[in-house]
Structure prediction request, 647 residues.
Amino acid sequence: MGTPALCRNDRLFVHVDHLERRGWLVPPVGDDHTDPGAVEYPTDQNDLHRDRGTAAHRSVEGHCPTSALRCAAAQPRACLLAVGFPSVTTPDDTARYCANLVSGLADAGVDTAFLSPGSRNTPLTIAFIREPRINNIAIRDEQSGGFAALGHGKATGRPAVVLSTSGSAAAHYFPSIVEANQAASPLIVLTADRPARLRGTGAPQTMDQMNLYGRHVKSFTDLEVATGNARSEGRVLATFASFLPAGPVHANVSFDEPLLPDTMPQVPHAMEWEPPVAEEPQHGDLLESLTARRVLIVASGRQQPGFQNALDRVAAALGAPIIADPQCWVVGANTVEYGDLLATSRYAFAAAPPDVVLRLGPIPTSKPLSTWLEESGVEQILVDKSRLRDPLGSAAVVIDQDPTLFLVANAPNRQRDAASDDAFLNQWLDMDTAVRDAMSASIDGLPFPNEPAVARILIATARPGDLVFLGSSMPIRDVDAFAQPRSDIAVLANRGVNGIDGTISTAMGAALAGNPVTLLVGDVAALHDATALSEVARLNVPLRIVVVNNDGGGIFSFLPQARSEIVGLESFEQHWGTPHGLSLQRIAQAMGVNAVRVETASEYLEELSTPIDGPSLIEVHSNREQNVEHHREIRSSARSVLRQDVE
Ligand SMILES: Cc1ncc(C[n+]2csc(CCOP(=O)(O)OP(=O)(O)O)c2C)c(N)n1
Ligand SMILES: [Mg+2]
Prediction:
């Protein structure tokens, strides 16, 4: 125990960590400080506080840094209250605190936690395994755990928890946090930490975990055990993660030894708790005012339940064609199924030009479509609840609201009368049919395996109610371009930052949330997350993984780098193509996952026709150069029918 007294006369000495953790900006202190971590704050004579004597709060006299003084002077009371002092906690207090924190999470609807092994997180691990409302899943690799929790959030709309020990373990959550933040997926990250007194020292497995994920989380809290109401902390964390736009929240919790209590506290009783509901703004007659105009609807991203119905109604009222990404496919009388192929050629937009585009959600997957939106100069209304700016910068009106809530709240009352001119909608639907026929004939003419057919067949054969997860790179693009939209399956993808990392883990998390999942993924992405195969096997996850093995990053063969003299073929292969010659079938088998390689369309169909009742992998081989040719051929046949139709 260190020196207890902290207050002398009118001065209070506080360790800067306390201030920084509370969000105060504390400038560096002068050389004359014996303890560089200490700053002083003026306080009231009567405001005597006592340090409980832990070495963490050893504070010595120093001179007040001017700006810190200024903030303290402006709000001296608030400052002192905010800073507070840690109390001495016993292992029993810690256990009670953790039990309440976890109960608070469960009160707010958290039902799944991905716990990674470690010693420092023991008090929280115990609290999770004792909370009956939470399903705890052990995952060795924190990166996998982070992505699995992300997948749970994407599949259910509810946040799952990840929990790690202190040190580098916590850093492995970063990629999943980045994706959760940008894709607006809920996620709760709990990291255990060493006690505050060890911060900035070379103590084992100790590093600076304050604001570890920077601006990529919605909130950071440094929880101090036994201060505050832990149950409400848990509820607040879960609510804040889910509050639209959803995202990741991080709480760091320090634990001192001993980590095990003498007696376990009672598990707190379950309590019903309703989070506050935000009021949705109305946008008057905005949609009503569009009924007389030619409106094209472009929808993207994972949307809330009810999106399809709401959009269907609005599109019918507006007589508007809908181009939607796989993650929010809408199937109805207004659906344009092959928007990406139509946008490949500018003829479609010239033949049936919209007066206005209603954009719902983030930037669409289709590059030709987003390029047209960016360059066309056509009036655009963007509705999206996001913390990110529109990358296209082409919207005249931006409405910061969840698209589903917007459509529900603002659906036009007035139905189009029978005499309304549906010529605009019909033109789009006719072009869509022409493109579909040309594209499917072209794919049918290609030898199998070819990547467009693999994607198209996978979607066509999914069972109603199934979930399909699409890997970044060509899988999501091929499905967007060539697959026939379905509204009886859910489609997920990591489109926040389009990473190829954590793909198997994210699909695993989605599958563990309930429905069987089929994952379409490239070979490089599968290798990137290959350790997840061992978890998929151990947990007997209902996950079918279809790997398109084109021996490297096939997407790069579409880029000018593939034919650049500056790069050269050899360097292109070494640094972009990255061939590996590995068999994903054998890797999966080594990890304990049943795996086959299919060579023909009928073998592929047969494999897909069996129900998903556990982990399996189907490997389909392809060739990167041929794949580019296949895509060119299909797109040019689609373009050619458009030209005939339009000219
Ligand atoms: C974590 C991460 N690293 C690198 C990239 C850049 N990248 C985009 S696609 C790609 C290759 C993907 O190859 P594969 O999964 O085999 O899919 P294919 O391109 O063959 O369809 C890479 C490395 C990325 N998106 N994410
Ligand atoms: Mg590949």
Remarks:
- The pocket of thiamine diphosphate (ligand 1) is lined by residues 472-474, 498-501, 522-525, 550, 553-555 (CB under 6 Å).
